[in-house]
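Hello,

Following up on my earlier ticket. Below are the two sequence lines again, exactly as submitted.
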Amino acid sequence: MNEFLASDLPGMFVRFLSLSLLSVGGAISTAPEMHRYLVSQNGWLDDAGFTTSIAIAQAAPGPNLLFIAVLGYQVFGLTGAAVALFGMMLPSTVVTLAASRWGHARRETPGVRAFVHGMAPMTISLLVAAGSILALPFVQQPEHRVGGLLLIGLTILAMLRTGIAPIWLITIGAVVGALGGV
Amino acid sequence: MSAPDDAPPARPRSLGELYLTFTLLALQGFGGVLAVAHRTLCERKRWLTRQEFVELLSVSQLLPGANIVNMALMIGDRAFGWRGAVTALAGMLSMPLVVVLGLVAVYNEFSALPAVAGALRGMGAVAAGLTIGMGLKLAAALRGNPMGWLPCATIGAATFVLVAVLRAPLLWVVPGLGLTGWCYARWCIARAERRP
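Thanks for your patience. The regenerated structure is below:
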């Protein structure tokens, strides 16, 4: 492990600026690059620290992107968190706003309409695929299979048939899990 | 279609409402914010129809950055310009940031307790169900797609197999299948326009 110095901040900021533009498909897709930079290359974090940071961010409410802030926090406290998050957000925010305004102004043109309709089946399927990947641990681990799949199935049913807010379903899941039901 | 989901969309009334709405939905988003965002934005607030939700999500997938953050930026921008974009972004990130950095401080103390591990597992299962359920629900937005149901189903199935089964990187799947869908939809729209 190497100590992170204040003089490393500009370098980290610039690195995160460039990673931001590569984060197509979500911030989490940059995790391998983050690992290379923070763990393998510079040794500011060890493997366990890296994995824990991502696990905490996943368990907490809010966008998964916040794992960037946790990584920044682990290497250089609140300043590190601010530099990492700001670097990661700035380029993608500017690009998103520019693209959104450009497309919205031309939304009746055939090209933009085709984009919206042509992308839709993939976008929807990506959600189902992402949910299935989250469900995979329950399929693979026999001791959690029955409870886990039952909970997943009931959640899908509740989503499709009722208007119950997701936070209540999450709460039920946490209670059932804490009591050993999953 | 007469489903309440397709009622004409409302608009955020003020920057305060925008901030509060995104803060509340972000704080409910354990294991992913999208499912909560869908319920809040499409079904409770009616700021977006299903179709618009899918549209914004499609754009977000292709652009760099977290999908949900990009959606918040675009919704805020369309309502109040750049002030709205900044407000929505602040709503999405500020409180969750406080929570997650607080969690870092206490995590190591309690991570060994079996009840904590169990609760996280239960929340994980529900998060999986929420995401799948949302996807199935949004499939209704494909009605009226100019490509017709068979190409839609084919692209959907190909996406699922590539991403969930073969684990192909999104960096290739999204531009590849997205471009295919885009070109085909463009062709279908041109063909429909040629016919009177």
